[in-house]
Amino acid sequence: MAKGSLKSTIAVSLNNYLDAGAIVAGASGLTLWQKYMGLSEMSLGWLNFISANCLGAAIGAIIGGFLADKYGRKFIFTYNLLVYMVGVLLVMLSVNFPMLLAGFLITGISVGVGVPASWTYISENSEVGNRGRNICISQMSWGFGPMCILLLGMLLAPDGLLSGFVQKVAHFFGGDGMSQQAVEVFSSRLVFLSLFIVAFIAWNLQRKLQESSEFDAAKAAQEGSGKKSGIIDNIKLLFSNKVAVRTVVYLASIYLTWNLVASVMGFFQPHIYETAGGLSNGYANMLSCVSWVVVVGFTFVISHFIDKVSHRIFYVLGLLCALSAWFVVIGVGVKSLAWVWVFTILWGLNGGSSVQIFYALWGSELFPAKFRAGAQGFMFFLVRGLSAIWGLTFTYIYGENGEHFTLAAWCMVALLLISLIVGVAGAPETRGKSLSQITKERYGENI
113: part of which helix (H) or strand (E)? Predict the structure, then answer.
């Protein structure tokens, strides 16, 4: 297959741009929406709870994963981003909290539907020696989304270079009698407009893709054998196979413990800079943007070596950077601007060699084609669903104004240590092997 795998990888990787972009678009304007609608910290927690960061994506993933195994990866690419555009449009037009919640939820569901199909498709359409590289390209897109969104948010922020343009747009649509809060929140509306445009472009590219040859081969084999291949049958097969169950436990464990930290950072990072660090909205978004620039740059470097060097090396490197970042917080806090920069860069290095890269890679390698996307969807459901609960819990631990930030940081350290220890202990050796070879080694000939 693999001819043209880079082109299809780039097209499908736009889903990662839209996934992370949706999370960070909400985060970059979180304080603005809070002021405009008079929202409490608990309301912000609910936004996180049902968003692309957590519950919305969880619901979408478990649906989308098994749909992709039943009807194909192309089926997801043909329709899913239409739902995404509806959700983003609803956020753009929100004038009250229920509308904002609904927009975040619909967008989140679409994100969840697309993720397992995307990672599965990229892996299935990659050459053996480029599978890790292509997953890294997908991760770079995951970094480009927040980087671009935060840069746009910084420029459009109330103290940004384009704040005058925002005021003109706001008064054009809302009249001269708008409150200052209503004018300022237009910067977030414009950020979501950019996601709508990218989603439309991505949908046009993805609906023209060919179906995965791995999916076609698996479907033909099932039809030839006369075995049932419905969604319920694949779910039963996933949970009745001991190898598959052990793999789910391992991958869900390493991804969950890392993602509980990353989900908080993805949604609350600018807000934390503003409340605990005392920075302006524009400066907070700028620092977060820098972190994502580091993510993209470091991922690009790793993409050249991931198919040649032991995965454990890069896995450990990323988590050591993450732990170092949070030890900086515990040791000196985030009141010093210099140490805020150190924290920002270290967290960016973690993202460049993150657990998510290896979860995406191993999750698409360690399951057979017939329930490959479904298994990833189920794990994504668990991880994002529990992250939703954690997001609400974090608002209590963190406090209204970040007064318990050190306690929250120790929680992050504990979670990252679990991900490090479990991940290193169970890391598989899959480099240089085809997906069919890995499947035969793990499940035998008749899975």
Answer: helix 97-124
